[in-house]
Each structure stands twice: as C-alpha cells, then as structure tokens.
What we know:
With 307 residues, the chain is α+β, with helices and mostly antiparallel strands. It has 2 domains: 122 residues, 2-Layer Sandwich (D-amino Acid Aminotransferase, Chain A, domain 1); 159 residues, D-amino Acid Aminotransferase, Chain A, domain 2. Strands 8, 9, 10, 11, 12, 13, 14, 15 and 16 form a 9-stranded mixed beta sheet that branches. Strands 1, 2, 3, 4, 5, 6, 7 and 17 form an 8-stranded antiparallel beta sheet that branches. Helix 2 crosses helix 3. The longest helix is centred in the first third of the chain and has 14 residues. The chain is globular. Ligand PPE binds next to helix 6 and strand 14.
Amino acid sequence: MALDFxxxxxxxxxxxxxxxxxxxVASHVVSYGSCLFEGIRAYExxxxxxxxxxxxxxxxxxxxxxxYRTETSFTREQLRQAMIELVRVNSVKSCYIRPxxxxxxxxxxxxxxxxxxxxxxLAWKWGKYLGDEALKQGVDxxxxxxxxxxxxTLPAMAKAAANYMNAQLIKMEAITNGYTEGIxxxxxxxxxxGSGENVFVVRNGTIYTPPLGSSVLPGxxxxxxxxxxxxxxxxxxEQVLVREILYVADEVFFSGTAAEVTPVRSVDRIPxxxxxxxxxxxxxxxxxxDIVEGRAEDKFGWLTYCN
Length: 307
Ligand code: PPE
C-alpha cells in the first residue's frame, strides 16, 4: 500500500527530501525499538490548515522522551515551530504528522545512552483510520486474547514504538478473525484500550472510560472528548471497567487522532445497544469534527493555524 506522503521531511533542524530520509539498518532503534513518536492531524479549515492540539502532542512527545531518558537538543517551542513549518513548506491542506525521536547509528547493545538521538517529522495524507464507513456505520470489534502491556513492563504513558508490537498482536488477531479492531484488557483483566484508540462506554446517560492505571495511552482525543462531554452536560467517570460492561453498554466508541470518534457497533458479535451508532456518540463525533474542521468556533483553543 503506497503512502501518500509529502515531499519535505524535517530532520534535526533541516528539511530534506522524502527519499533522503533513510537510516542505517544498524541503528539502535531497529534492533531495540528505541523510538518515541506522535501522531497529529492537521485539518483543512476555511482559515487554512490547522494543527489539532499541537502543544499537547509536543508535550506528550517530550514526556515520552523524558521517561526513556532520551535527551534532545530541541525545545518544545522549536518542535512546535518545526511542525508548523512542515505544513507550510509542503503546502499541506490536511495531513497526518508523524514526529519520531529515536536512537540512531553508533554502537550496538541494549544500552542506548551513547547512541545519537535523531528527530524526524514526516507528513502524509491519512484518510479514515478504521475504514471509510467506520465513522458513520460503526465498527465490529473483539476483545483481544492479548493483554495490554502491564504497568511495570513498558510505561503506557510513553508513546513508544516498542508498545506497538503489543498493538500489532492485538490488531493482527482481530483482522485475521474478521473484526476491524481489538480491545485489549489490562493485566488485571479490566478494559484497557484498542490497538490505536482509547475506549469509551455510555450507559444510562453517563460516559465511562478507563483510567491511566488501566495501561491506557493518555489520549489527546480522549481529553477532548471529556471536555466536549462536560460542555454538553454529560457526566464522565474515569474508572476501572469490567469486560462485560461492553456487552451491556448502550454505546461504545473509540477516540484517537487517527480514528477521531468511531462508533463500535458490536463486541465479540454481540450488538452494542441497537447495533448502530448511538446518540451520545453521534453528538460528540459531530461536535468534535465541527470544531477541528473549522465549522464551529474553536472555543477550547485546540487549533494552531499554519498560514
Ligand atoms: N491508545 C493508543 C494505543 C494509541 O496508539 C492512540 C493513538 C490512542 C490511544 C489515542 O491517542 P490520541 O491520538 O492522543 O487521541 N494512535 C495513533 C495511531 C497509531 C497508528 O500509527 O496506527 C493515532 O491515532 O494517531
């Protein structure tokens, strides 16, 4: 599947072309997964391209790097500016931005501390993450036989490439068995998250989502959904959620930069509610997309305009 990429790539402070953005196979990251990354959307709006929650994504990236003792020579402000520049130099209307911080070429062996730190910013066009119909129709998911990474194995707060080996197991199992996505349980058997999305459950007018202690990524879309629910007067509770709540929920949905707000219409072939997207999901999805696509006022200050 070809990547619909933008030509200019930012590398350690300079722009290079897509084809120049290569690394040696002996780079530390290849053997040991030593990479922290982000996923950010820039939306086309009537006022030009706008990056969604840029500062929050840069903060999470910096925190991921801090957790893994990966020091970079760029400040958060410089990284924010670099992403705005990336959108500008590529004349982007809308894109997905992938910042990468990884341990490059030097010695080999587990110890990463002597390897150089490389930073790249890439951009490409990314459509609907879980398929074109997903946002309207909802997706069919399973509970994975793979658990999410346990708290004292890999830190879930860090968005690290290595975490996505676990995510790949969840995703491959789901797809092989005819589902669009898998929801993983945490080490204790409670709901954690999808391979690339946070999970929300709606029941009797209240919205529930697992806390950080359930090995979830502190999703930026998750935070946005909590804000939008507050605005709409819908109570949100962050609490440990038992697996079977998925089977008796009125609504279930995913949130994520790539997935945006995607309804879940069945779990393990059991219909969620009436087996179609429910009203709370639809209301939050519409409000989210209206703001990020610039149809509604950006009252939470989420958008950074790039022109
Ligand atoms: N959990 C996981 C494991 C995760 O990967 C994501 C983002 C989220 C939750 C939602 O976080 P946020 O984007 O901040 O709301 N997953 C990215 C896609 C991963 C992929 O490359 O595939 C994303 O949505 O950009």
